[in-house]
Each structure stands twice: as C-alpha cells, then as structure tokens.
Amino acid sequence: MNNLSSLYSFELPPASHWSLVLRRGLQLKLTDLAGGANVGMMFYNPLDKLERYNAPDTLKCQHTFKLTKGNCLYSDMGRIFASIIEDDFGWHESVCGNSTRQQVEKRWGKRDYQQAHNDWQQNGFDSFLVELAKYGLSERDMGANLNFFSKVAVDENGNLSLEQAGQKGASLTLRFEMDTLVILHSCPHPLNHAAHYPRTPVLCEISEAAPVADDDFCRNFRPENQRGFENNRLYYLGAGR
Question: 157 lies in a domain?
C-alpha cells in the first residue's frame, strides 16, 4: 500500500460538488466518513475535453460489471485516466447514472438553497452541470458517470437496486495515469430510497503516487490494461492523438 504523505486534503460536505485537475502521477484517496456515501465522478482530458471517461469500454474490456482494486478507468480513446490501486469497499458501479431534481423532490420533498441554505437537497445531475460550466462544458458533454461506494444488485428480470451505499471508514484510492479533469459530487445514488435524504461527508486526500512498475497490479490485472498503459505511453511520447 502507498503510504506517501498527503499534499492536500479536503472534506467534501454532503450534497456538494467539486472539480479539479489532477496531474499524472498523483493519487486521490476517498474515505466515507460516516457511512452511506456516494461519490459521483466523471473524467475529462483537460487538454482535449472531447476525450472523456467511457463506461462501456471500461467494463467490457475488463470483463466486469463492478469496479474494484485492479480495475482501470478508460477514456473513449483507449487510454487510462486512472487505476484503482486500493479499495476496501470492494464494489463500485458505473451504469446507474445520476440522481435528478425530480427524483430528489419526489423522494424527499422540495427544498431549495434559499430556504434551506447548506441543508438543501442537491441532486447529482445539477451538481455536475454547475461544475462542467466552469470549463465551458454543458449537458451535452455529460456521459455515464462513476458511482463510488455504491453497490447495486440485479434480479432475475434485470432490474437494478441499491444493495449498499457506503460503509463508515471505507476508502478507495485512484492513481492518475493521465492529467485528468475530475468532476465529482457527494449527492445520493439515483437508486437510493432511504427514508431521509442521505448526508455523508467524504474525505479527499491528494498525494504523490509511487512509480508504476512492470509488475504493477493494475497494469497486469487484465491483458487489456497493458495495452491501455501502452496507449498512454504513446500519448506522452507525442505519438498519439
């Protein structure tokens, strides 16, 4: 496990959103501080924002439905934005999308910022839109997002349900293999039907990652990941678009 000291830490409050550019060679550790967290996240290439996280390619090339330690998170250019190098929750999903204003109001009532201030009930879709606008992006640029700390189950008819949202103290560490624009929020998972609006803060810690060795677990987790790392290498040699 990488125990390098933190360069920056930030507690993301419940029902909040954030964005930042993380350079290649940094890692981001997320920790569910109270239990029940959901962290929605999207990735973009900050130098070419048409390149973004691709959920179908990430899942199919690694022959998985869930994401956990060893999995790499792919762009639509076949490159790797980040690798999951540590994970003690063990099950994260990338197919259910975001909570919307309509869903939140139907389940937990309407409450806007002017009335509730910091206790308002933000939704994931609008949270992403606020952050995307800071970089000249809009609704048309929103793709399928990751939902960290959310485990879903599938029944015999293919219906999805939220089996578990977060776990107190659970953490996940992403190592960034490319310079990456990270958009994230701490709003409820779209399948969360809790009696009360979930409010769980998430600790975000940024540190330097150890160099990627030839025997790196994520690099060798699937043969496809080796090709993804080679695509990254070509990109940084200036030989790839």
Answer: yes
Instruction: Report the number of distinct structural domains present in the chain.
Output: 1
CA distance 235 to 213: 18
Please give the Cα distance from 69 to 220 (Å, whole number).
12
Q: What SS3 state is found at 221?
A: coil
β-pairing, 39-45 with 48-52? antiparallel
pLDDT one-digit tens code per residue, 4-30: 578 999 999 999 999 999 999 999 999
User: What is the amino acid identity at position 109?
Assistant: G
pTM: 0.94
Residue 241 domain-assigned (yes or no): no
Using CB atoms within 10 Å of the CB of residue 175, give its burial: 0 to 12 exposed, 13 to 18 middle, 19+ buried: buried
Q: Which two tokens stand for residue 63?
A: 């022959």
Q: Who's near 8: CB < 8 A, 6+ residues apart?
A: 205, 206
34, 206 contact by CB (below 8 A)? no
Range of the domain at 17: 10-236
Give CA–CA dist 117/130, Å, rounded. 17
Answer yes or no: is 1 within a domain. no
